[in-house]
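Ticket #4471: complex job returned nothing on first submit. Input attached below:
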Amino acid sequence: MVGLTIVVVHLILAFTAPLIAPYSPTHIEPSVRLEGPSADHLFGTDSFGRDNLSRVLYGGRVALLVSFTAAVVAVTWGGLLGILLGYLGGRVDEVVMRVIDGLLAIPSLLLIMLVILALGSGFSVLVLTLGYGYGLTVVRIARGATLAIVARDFITAARARGERSRTIVLRELMPNVLDVLLVEFAMRSSWMLLAIASLSFLGFGISPPTPDWGRMVFENSELLAIAPWGTVFPVIAISSMVIGINLASDALSKAMGLERTQEAPL
Amino acid sequence: MSQKLLQVDRLTTGYRTQTGHMVEVIRNVSLEMHEGETLGLVGESGSGKTTFGMALMGYLRPGGQVMAGTVRFDGVEIFGLGPNELRKLRGKRMAVVPQSASLSLTPTMRVGDQIAEVLTVHVGLSGSELSERLLELLTQVHLPQVAELARRYPHELSGGQLQRVAIAMGLAAAPELLVLDEPTTGLDVTTQAHILDLLRELQEHFGMAMLYISHDIGAIARVSDRLAVMYTGQIVEDGPIEEVFGRPVHPYTRGLLSSVPRVSYAGLPRAMDGRPPAPGEHEVGCSFAPRCTFADETCTTIDPTLEPIDPDAKIAHLVHCHHWQRVVASEDFGEMQDLKARTKKAVELEPLIELTEVDITYAKRGLGAFLRRLRGVPEPPMTVSDFTLTIHRGETVALVGESGSGKSTIVRTIAGLLPPRAGRIRYGDQDLTTKVERRPIEIRRKIQMVFQHPEASLNPRHTTKQIIDAPLRLFFKTDREQRLERSASLLEEVRLSPRYLEWYPGQLSGGEKQRVAIARAFAAEPELVLCDEVTSALDVSVQAAVLDLLAGLQADRGVSYLFISHDLAIVRAIADRVVVLYQGRMCEVGPVERIYAPPFHPYTETLLAAVAEPVPGARARLLAKDVQEAEPPARGCCFQRRCPRRVGSICDEETPPWRVAVEGHLISCHIPLDELRESQVDLISTSSI
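Support reply: We reran it on our side without changes. The output follows.
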């Protein structure tokens, strides 16, 4: 519940940023550089005299959008492939899984940075590379969940009836794997958010002047001693969002688990 | 019987639900156990019998608590002990043999070491004394080659051997009380018979008291001196075993006893109505009242107390009923219904499906197998070999055998999930050696399957409606509304209310789930229904109802059943013909009544001798050796290694001939039938007193 509230508040703030932000996030006001929190600038200003509050409000928009879209991409392709492999089994499964194991051996953040170096850090590049990187793990998890279901008799019953594979996968398997995928989605979103923050901090993520939490932390980190608020507030924003998503996904998996235990054990 | 060893006084335990209510699991139970006594505790799933057994050891599940009452072991209040004192008591003076030995032994530790641990901690043995005692214990539970066996890991032992190890572990510190929680459930009948015998023998030797918890009345009857019956967390009857079996005074005990199928009777047991209330569901009065034919207003308002029926009796016979005198006076007990007479079904002689010399194996063909053959490695024996059977229209054929006998494999092959390696399967003029994907839709419709575990065979995310709708959608070109109507009427046919349509399997009881699974099979309007152990996961009272349902459906629709079961009593009640399988080879085939009388195949004889009839003190005449066989012998008779009537090397070398007892009754054995008939006793009529 707490987690969900945090997530919702974050989403509302990000969504309504243009309406509630007191200043434009990119407006430079040289007369008020590096000011501390005040009535005019609640979170203070940065070295360009930009309003930190506005930048924090705006800073989540791109990151959230990218992480959620990328999580959708990761869970969709990873989930579908995982379910399919779990259902088909045999040679295909064997070969594809070994390939995925190989790909998993490449550090994903490194790979993503290389791709961004080559192709730039546009929205679609970010979404696709992150979606690819995290999707690999989703494949493993979806396949594992599917294997546990495929062994059960209701799948045998459907096969003995002669149902088409499509029907078995969509109608019989999918509803039983969906809960796992939902939890995966929530967890991946928070990891994505951290990944984007890390990328931005390292200078690979969202390019300036678009405000971004990770970027803000980087820009203001040199001034940590004289103007800590420039770093503190985006850090709070990132961590509260991640904590919120994590709590929400915990609650989600618990709720799903509860539903499971209400069924007869087997 | 001497000293009181255990005294449970008005014990009530419960747990708090998420909504904050207290739910009682054990309700006001008072019970005594004397030294050296064996008390059987019988109850259906959810009755609280395991919770009770664990509570005696001072153990409650996480979240559970004692709400009232005491448990005194040798005068000491168990729940007043601290964790250290309790630990000293458990294992040393009281021990548990848990339900599933395979799950309760540590898989990464040698079995000998696990028993040695008990001996070190509780007896304080070490060095040569320790190893001597360990081997002695293993010998006492009749394990073979103990020195070598002690060094093995749990997965290297068979189910029966594991159970013996668990018993040895329980006995290691020579406890005064041994709690056995369903120790033979899940074992084959022959193994079960061996274990029950062993327990009797060990008790005579060690003299400990035993609490034998089980849902299996037949097993309990064999080992117990006294019987307590548990229903919704209460003891409803408690008395000497002969008395409770001979003259049960509680209506529930009567219902339970008469719903047990008996191998000595060729009829179907009577089913009990209704189902027990879920924990916390019951509020006032007697919890059995809603299912009781004797219930009146007193019963629904006042909960009776557990009272002796004869205050002067030496061993009290207690009952928890307002009207037990009326129950005793009624004649309404012990009668069975004759299923076959009732349904009067006519078996036509039109063959429905013919299997001829079918061989089945799980071994894959391909490069690996080819290379092995090149290296001269012999191919593993077929899982099922030379299987020949014809099922006629409207007939029920039962496949009988222990686990690993290939029963389910044959069903999978008929269903098209595992094509045979050799042989012919004809269904009318259709070839059935193909995979299910290659079969025409009409054939797929005509052959349907019902599985053993309804929990696994129903999709937990689908409502009853969706489950029954699946075959309707696939096989019939009808619209949504027609299908809904059909689903509702199918539910009524399996005697479930149409309001179940919107329910999920998680909301149904085991028996109800199995009915839904049966409704799904019949939705396709099949001609042949493959029933794979359909009742073995159900409680006895529910079992009887499901069998009755299957028989009724057959009478109405003229379907044929291929009925797989390890339970010879059930098979006798429902089958027309029986095939006895051992290691995937046919031993005997014949009309049902012929199978249950001599001459028997030695394997059939073994199985029948091992059946635990619900008769106090009944003992199995053990015939075959209790060995687990990994794979069938390459040559000769399939039963050669365990056969109690082995002739000699001919059994190892030559495949036995089929000998015809009467037309249609065939036995595959080297011993001539006259000889078999002479040396065999009529096991059924003699075992029922």
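The interface with chain A takes residues 415-417, 436-437, 439, 441, 444, 447-449, 451-453, 455-462, 470-471, 474, 504-506, 510, 513, 520, 524 of chain B (CB under 8 Å). Closing as resolved unless it happens again.
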